[in-house]
Amino acid sequence: MTTFTDETRERAREIIARYPADRSRSALLPLLHLVQAEEGYVSPAGVAFCAEVLGLNKAQVGAVATFYTMYKRKPTGDFLVSVCTNTMCNVLGGQEVYDTLSEHLGVGHDETTADGTITLEHAECLAACDYGPVMTVNYDFFDGVDPSTAVGVVDELRAGGRPMPTRGARLCTLKEMAVQLAGFADERDGAVADGGPGEPTLRGLRLAQQHGVSVPGFDPNTPIRSKAEADRAAAEAKAKAEAAKPAPAEAAAAPVKGGDGASAPTGAAGIEPAKPADATEPAKPADTTDSTAPDVKAPDDKSPQVRTAETRQPDADTAVPDAPGTKVPTDDTGTAPAAGDARSAEAAGVAANAPAGDGKPAGDDAGAQERNLTEAKAGTDADGAGPADASETGAQK
Fold first, then answer.
1. pLDDT digits (tens, 9 = 90+) for 112-129
2. DSSP per residue over 281-318, as a string?
């Protein structure tokens, strides 16, 4: 059984520390990459290691490791060569590239050369249709390949070389790549010094520049603000908007007294009579939503699952209209149905849709369903059982 190095264990602790204490299981994916970085694949020992440090069982870890194709379950070569044989690349010659490499290397799908250098696989899609046919080496792209160029790449790899991918950084081994996928920087000198985007990727940008297409008001030199600056700008904008609002209308002024102490008549000099409301102006409708329940704050002590169950259950004994889009069922009088009514309705539905079985036509054995319905309506059986017990007793009879 493999004993993982102290460095791997230290990195495992660092990975787990990235997540909240009660969410440590989220570290499983990078941990699987970490053990693959040491062994070149996810071995049974690697599964046991991940289970140990996360407090899981091996079945839980194995279920994840077998789901994703990037986790290899048997020893893999230093360079994983993947050839796309899906529709677009296949039409452009991807299958021919794969067949040529398979014959040249003497291996088939998911097999490794005798020197342990190359593992060959055909891929369903490598998400690079505009560069097809494509192949990847440890997930770095080699675009527009043909059988001869593909053979040249693998021969250079077997000779100890590192051919430069069409796009991306310099090639690394499968183990080095797994370290990066675990979340650690590539420490090789000049690891990301080369590479660049492909021309098809830049085609849209070229067309936009050619035809003067740009986002309205876009300034590529606009600096990216920090969160604090963005919050400050938002607060200033809100303050300006509040200041720009008109002052609320004052309450109706008290009547102005005349010289003799009497109230000034309506329409007196300097006094503007109140304008009557325009009776023809329609009232503005209140804001409406698609919800069938009033928009009220949901109780904080209930989970969304509990609230949904309470507002949608047929009995509605404890239902409260606090979830948007739900409505407590009511009858014609506006009251929620009693528990027995819901069970009666359910029994009636079952009685009307008796399943066919044992070669008998549907509805052949309706007697038991009728008894259930009768007992549900009565609310109790001869033994004094409740509605739920009565229904179950009827089914047993």
1. 999 999 999 999 899 888
2. SPPPPPP--S-SS---PPPTTS-HHHHHHHHH-SS-SS
